[in-house]
Design goal:
The complex is a heterodimer of chains A (114) and B (112).
Chain A lengths: L3 E4 L2 E4 L4 E8 L5 E7 L6 E7 L2 E5 L6 E7 L2 E7 L7 E8 L9 E2 L3 E5 L1
Chain B lengths: L3 E4 L2 E5 L4 E7 L5 E7 L5 E8 L4 E4 L2 E6 L4 E6 L8 E9 L3 E6 L3 E6 L1
Parallel strand pairs in B: 2-11
Antiparallel strand pairs in B: 1-3, 3-8, 4-5, 4-9, 6-7, 7-8, 9-10, 9-11
Classes of the chains: A mainly beta (114), B mainly beta (112).
């Protein structure tokens, strides 16, 4: 148990659906991250938030829309996804962004887009 | 973009043997971290080594860093079946990004 929870753990959605992924951290951290992990590919950083402000958007398509209402919660809103968006989506947090910071990961949401 | 690259992609050993995984990276770094991931789960931090350190130990783990070769190795001694997982290295990109970049990982299988 890393102190980072994600819901749902599994999600199947059609290309026209709208859904949201939720991440919550109980560690008092200020930075939160969304990663995408596809089979046999490196972990891809999607978004970084620091004190609720987005500090990095790694050229992510607009069909992925993050929201960080406070430093403990992070959402990823999904709409009109494509089958190639099927992947494991991981949330992480750290005390502050970047250098020399250990990231604590949630268990991930396994997403399947049909 | 990818910064670290692990080698080998997959490694299969018997319980009790040592496992060595390597990571190479492209640009100067401030620190390098190793993470472990059990199948379909989140990553768990194992160890962090700073650019001015050459070796670090944590239990059965030994990490080395050679900044002149831009490479790091993770050694797991006396492996156990429970060590079966994927292992990733992650680096920052000095002077460019405050965020970590992960490699594609080494899939380690330890047979009982």
């Amino acid at each position: 148990e890393t102190g980072v929870t994600q819901t749902p753990r599994h999600l199947v959605m059609g290309m026209t659906n709208k859904k949201s992924l939720k991440c919550e951290q109980h560690l008092g951290h200020n930075a939160m991250y969304w990663y995408k992990q596809s089979a046999k590919k490196p972990l891809e950083l999607m978004f970084v938030y620091n004190f609720k402000e987005q500090t990095e958007n790694n050229s992510v398509p607009s069909r992925f829309s993050p929201e960080c209402p406070n430093s403990s919660h992070l959402f990823l809103h999904l709409h009109t996804l494509q089958p190639e968006d099927s992947a494991l989506y991981l949330c992480a947090s750290s005390r502050s962004p970047g250098l020399a910071q250990t990231q604590y990961f949630g268990p991930g949401t396994r997403l399947l887009v049909l | 973009s990818q910064q670290g690259e692990e080698d080998p992609q997959a490694l299969s050993i018997q319980e009790g043997e040592n496992a060595t995984m390597n990571c190479s990276y492209k640009t100067s770094i401030n620190n390098l971290q190793w993470y472990r991931q059990n199948s379909g789960r989140g990553l768990v931090h194992l160890i962090l080594i700073r650019s001015n350190e050459r070796e670090k130990h944590s239990g059965r783990l030994r990490v080395t860093l050679d900044t002149s070769k831009k490479s790091s190795s993770l050694l797991i001694t006396a492996s156990r079946a429970a060590d079966t997982a994927s292992y990733f290295c992650a680096t920052d990109v000095k002077g460019i990004s405050n965020d970590m970049r992960f490699g594609a990982g080494t899939r380690l299988t330890v047979k009982p």
